[in-house]
Design goal:
- There is one protein chain.
- With 143 residues, the chain is an alpha+beta fold.
- It has a single domain, classed as Thiol Ester Dehydrase, Chain A.
- Helices cover 16% and strands 43% of the residues.
- The protein has 1 helix and 8 strands; from the N terminus they run ββββαββββ.
- The protein has a 6-stranded antiparallel β-sheet, with helices on one face. A two-stranded antiparallel ribbon has the order 3-4.
- A hairpin with a 2-residue loop joins strand 3 and strand 4.
- The two termini are 18 Å apart.
- The N terminus is likely disordered.
């Protein structure tokens, strides 16, 4: 599965199926069998920014893309294959406590709870300035 190491040398655009302006991750910080951590710098001109804050759909998409980064890393770097599309199967128990402002960075972690065939069930936590601003459970299906 994923190697336990800092991923600062990975170009995030090579492991995500999403293309600009929909890229919601700046870097992959960590990836192992259970935990994946990404970071995103919120820019004023981003498609999911409104009135200087990242909107709720942007937070959900950031979580989904953290899952996609894990899958993309495994498929392209570990298994030497292609990056595949993924689809949100469900979002459960979503709690959004705050919306981060432009210029700030959010750190998103997903913890794999179950992985069966091409389906991934994760517990996600999004933090801004080390303060939890969102969490949920998400199912992602890989095509």
């Amino acid at each position: 599965m994923c190697n336990l190491k800092i991923m600062i040398d990975i170009d995030i655009k090579t492991i995500l199926p999403q293309k600009e302006p929909f890229v919601m991750i700046s870097s992959l910080l960590h990836c192992d069998k259970i935990l994946t951590i990404t970071e995103f710098e919120i820019r004023e001109n981003h498609i999911f920014v409104l009135d200087g804050v990242l909107t709720e759909p942007g937070i959900i998409e950031n979580i989904a893309q953290t899952c996609a980064a894990r899958m993309g890393y495994v498929n392209s770097v570990i298994n030497k294959g292609n990056v595949k599309l993924g689809f949100i199967g469900s979002v459960k128990n979503l709690v959004i406590k705050g919306l981060p402002h432009t210029g700030s960075r959010i750190t998103t972690s997903i913890e794999v709870k179950n992985e069966v065939f091409n389906m991934l069930l994760v517990k996600a936590v999004v933090k801004s300035n080390n303060i939890e601003i969102a969490n949920c459970e998400m199912k992602i299906s890989e095509q």
